[in-house]
Amino acid sequence: MQHGFANATRRARIFGLALVLLGALPLRAQSSTPASPAPAPVAMREVVDEFGRTVRVPQIPARIVSLAPSLTETVYALGAQDRLVGDTDYCDFPPDAQKKAKVGGPINPNLEEIAALHPDLVLVTKEINRLDTVRALDTLGIPAYATDARNVDEILSTTQKLADVLGVPENGKSLTSDLQSRLAELHAKLEPFPPSRVLFIVWTEPLISVGKNTFIADALRKADAASIVESTQDWPQMSLEEVVRLRPEYLVFAESHSDAGSRDFEVLANRPGWNILDAVRNHHFAVISDAVNRPAPRIVSAIEDLARQLHPGAFQEAPAPEKPATPAPSNPPAAAPVRMTHNTQPLSLEFACAR
Amino acid sequence: MRPLTLTRLLLRCGILTAILFAVVILALKLGAVQVSLYGLTRDLIQVLLGHSNNISSDYVLIVLNIRLPRILLAIVVGASLSVAGVSFQALLRNPLADPYVLGISTGAAVGSILALIVENQLNLPPEYAGLITPFGAFLGAALTIAAVYILGRRDGQVDSNTLLLGGIITASFLAAIVTFLMSTLAGSNLRGASYWLMGSLSTLPPKSLLYLLAVGFLAAAGAIYTTASDLNLLLAGEKEAMHLGVDVPRVRIVVYLAASILTGLAVSVSGAIGYVGLLVPHVMRLIFGSDHRMLLPASALGGAIALVVADTAARTLVAPSELSVGAVTAMVGAPFFIYLLRRRMA
Amino acid sequence: MSSPLRHPLPGDPSRATTDVRLSVEQVSYAYAPNPSQAPLFTLEAMSFQAKPGELVAILGPNASGKSTLLKLISGALQPLSGRIFLNGFETHSLPVKTRAQRIALVQQESRLLFPSRAWEFVMQGRHAHGGGLRFESEEDILITNNALAQVGATELADRWMDKISGGEKQRIILARALAQQPLLLLLDEPTLHLDIGAQVDLLESLRRLAAQNRYTVVVVTHELNLTGEYADQVVLMQRGKCLRVGPPATVLQREILEQVFQAPLSVEIAPSGRPRVTLFTNK
Q: Rounded to an integer, what distance in angstroms lies between the CA atom of residue A163 and that of residue C200?
């Protein structure tokens, strides 16, 4: 009986036909160019992002989507927020960022939402976003610019490069020079003082700190605080034994409210065995803004804040610095940057409503 | 007495295909971006006629470039997992078998994590970069398949019980390796790995990968289908099957390899999505009976339908965020499995 | 009966002329679970022959090697020495599918993973005659119905296999073997779980089928009286050795039976010429 083979062939053919029909759609759909939202021919240029990828972006991007809270903050700091059309669910600073259209989380943003906003530039960072997201955006023909800032200096240079890409290089220059001078000033003030040994606490249960190659560890260094953690992992888990052996002078917490920081300390202090630490017995802990967790311009304020808490002796003189006063960054036309204030209080007003 | 005939088979498959089609249209309609059914149909017809440039609204292009590949991926993965599930249940003579019981998904996990690590060291052109992780995952799966095969032999032949034992042990061992690797990964790698392990269809596959998957599915599923009536007899017992004319060693190898390849392909692109490979075969068996000549194509179509539905739910229920599709299949699958157990049909 | 039930072997000219269908020639076997150890079990060289329409009983106590001999005949095992011929073809060297077209083995139990209906079960017997992607034809359906009729199980056709009694299941299993349309029908202790009425029914059916369809039936058993009553030829075995081969009257004799079965027995010859064995207890 030859039915067997004929049956098989016929079935395979029908199945294959169905699959081909369904598969024909994308073939034909993609025969035309992907959605190009810019109405008239727009001047484009090529830039190289921090991954080494060459990206074609408009001369002045008009519709920007940010896929990381740090990038959103930077866009605002550069005064380009009017051109920001979408950001992530977690973009909460400054408060105005919460009003922008949301495209989901940084790890798994909704591609449809992004595409529906017709962006001509999407900003991503290696720290939070996934490579697959970048590839998906490439496939859709949406330019994606990736940043990768691994220490404080790179945060500043990233900010400058981003300013160039966004078409506001002057804002970038003034912002970064201001931040650099603040850091230099801080460095000068802190020079005579030996660095404090600190343990930066990301999470209490289990106890997680930051590795020495992270930008957070670098930020600590700039505040004349040396993280006792030697690990090269980004978020190493620590045991009490290790912490005792390394003897930190201070525990550092990053929280949006100072009360939360005190609470964290109490929780840790009441754990069995933690009383061994000098830092716990002497109540030596510092609470800084959670801005330290984001590689954005605001981290400099957190650094200054930490320095003040750890080395109050360096800041005895009047707040007026030696060099000429540096006011808030000059306003480029039709842009209102966020005020970067110098503040002697442990927690500045700008952080109070950050959540 | 009503034996299965070709007409009946085609009719039932035709009904299932029609359901699949309807589900696909629905899935194309739903999503974070609203699309009207009328507009969608009109534009789809334009596309099929080759007039893609006539489409005024470019959101439909979004639909076709984002949703459609994802739906197609769900179809191939769902069909692959279900066919693999049927095959392993027959091969291992165990109704609780699913495609991952022999450790293939864990091997793929190891492969994909290692690929993630390697990927960051290399700097590949974009056409190839997207293929490293699936390739690594498939390589991990293939090595696991070979290892379990060697472990699962007795007297030179694949033996069901030994295979099951060997597979379970390999799975545990590989899972330990996965845990170890995850603990050594740096931040962004870790995130990527965790995301992959959850099982998701949201990564836009390159077109070449989709075609490769489809071809692989047709080849492997076709190979299994040639043994369909042998599988019917195998379920009655291996000795009996031999005396009824089944070349048992040959059937076992063909089914093992083909089903493992199906699993490996599916897992390489989507991570380990659970419950589909376990439950769809049982549901199809409840409806259509245990004849594998009907069960295999029915499970393929049923699996495609199930996964398209699950994936659509995953990406629309909490839009613009997404649930992982593995979470959706588990939330629906586990209670359903309990229900089946109580009916004592599982 | 009509031709569908008698399936002539293609290309086998010897069928019409030779009387001997099954020929076991100096067959021996050894089984060692571990290649380095001495063989645990051996079957010493033995020979016998069987004709179409004959019912052969392989008789012996437990662990005498009966099942092993049956497996050798079925082609599942390869003899250590000697050969087994079925109509001139060596059973072990036949491809599995061809073997299944000529030899049907009925085992005691059938473990079904997923329940099926009786007719589906019987139809499995047709696999050897088609298989692959082939769907069952009208002829297959006819043969299946016939097989069910021959074991008197027509009304069981639509019942689920896990819902029928042991005796009914036995009949369905036999029907499946019949659906294979074999030349050789092998049964391994088929009467084990049956009551005496069912045992007699079964043996009657086997004798009838052997005569009608010209099967050669080989039954492994340790039932003395059923053997005496129904077998045309008896192969008496003890501990891997074949002690005697022949018609029941010559094999079932008191001295040798007592020695093999280790029980006091007495044998009478009934008017039909068949021996009857009774337990001989001391008064």
A: 99
